[in-house]
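Please fill in the sequence for the structure shown.

STRUCTURE ENCODING:
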């Protein structure tokens, strides 16, 4: 099969100069959006399924193939794959959730905007947090739709753990790093190498086959690790 996914089309050539300003503004204000009932129910379903001492989120998991791979990679953790898209998730979720007895993962349809806040309100501390190929919202005026410049950035930090973000748009990674720096967290950026078809998610496969450069940011969001400079 031919893969020809086009590169991210953006009118930005570098990180947006307002990242710090937007993060600070959100930091000072309370995000008041009410939690939708269906997201509350989905959250409760996920929490009730946890059968391991540590929790990993695969946020925006798409069809959930990455969640299944993470479950095999981290057998001592419980992986929660969350996506709001019914068409991406449903078939796979039903198949995967029913295929194993007492699996160490669940695929859940929910909006992260609510799911993350519910988890943070319950003081859930993640072991790891994967956000693989988030929608880049690449136009300059889309800035506030990106996770790091959304009101949810605070919540991502509150959930803690080892954060791993992957993107085929290096500016997203650079901006996320800048946003973390405003809160005194350090991060590492690397060019990802995919060997022997070992892609973690379907978007990763698509971009790799289309010969895009793939970037990864990692950050330790454990509070103790904060750089108190
Ligand atoms: C580009 S796709 C990447 C999917 C998958 N992580 C992968 O790498 O194959 C981004 C995914 O994020 C999901 N998403 C975006 N915003 C979301 C939100 N607010 N809540 C839940 N899922 C969201 C979309 O539905 C989509 O499946």
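FILLED IN BY: designer on duty
SEQUENCE:
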């Amino acid at each position: 099969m031919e893969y020809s996914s086009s590169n991210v089309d953006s009118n930005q050539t570098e990180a947006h100069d307002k990242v710090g300003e937007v993060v600070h503004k959100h930091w000072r204000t309370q995000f008041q959006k009410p939690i939708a009932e269906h997201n509350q129910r989905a959250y409760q379903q996920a929490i009730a399924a946890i059968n391991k001492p540590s929790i990993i989120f695969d946020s925006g998991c798409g069809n959930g193939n990455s969640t299944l791979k993470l479950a095999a990679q981290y057998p001592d953790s419980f992986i929660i794959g969350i996506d709001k898209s019914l068409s991406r998730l449903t078939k796979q979720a039903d198949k995967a959730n029913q295929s194993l007895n007492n699996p160490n993962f669940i695929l859940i349809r929910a909006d992260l905007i609510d799911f993350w806040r519910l988890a943070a309100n319950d003081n859930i501390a993640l072991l790891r947090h994967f956000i693989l190929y988030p929608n880049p919202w690449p136009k300059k005026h889309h800035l506030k739709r990106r996770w790091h410049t959304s009101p949810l950035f605070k919540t991502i930090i509150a959930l803690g753990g080892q954060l791993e973000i992957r993107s085929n748009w290096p500016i997203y990674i650079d901006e996320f790093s800048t946003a973390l720096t405003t809160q005194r967290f350090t991060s590492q950026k690397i060019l990802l190498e995919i060997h022997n078809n070992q892609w973690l998610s379907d978007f990763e496969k698509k971009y790799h086959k289309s010969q895009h450069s793939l970037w990864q940011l990692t950050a330790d969001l454990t509070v103790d690790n904060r750089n108190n400079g």
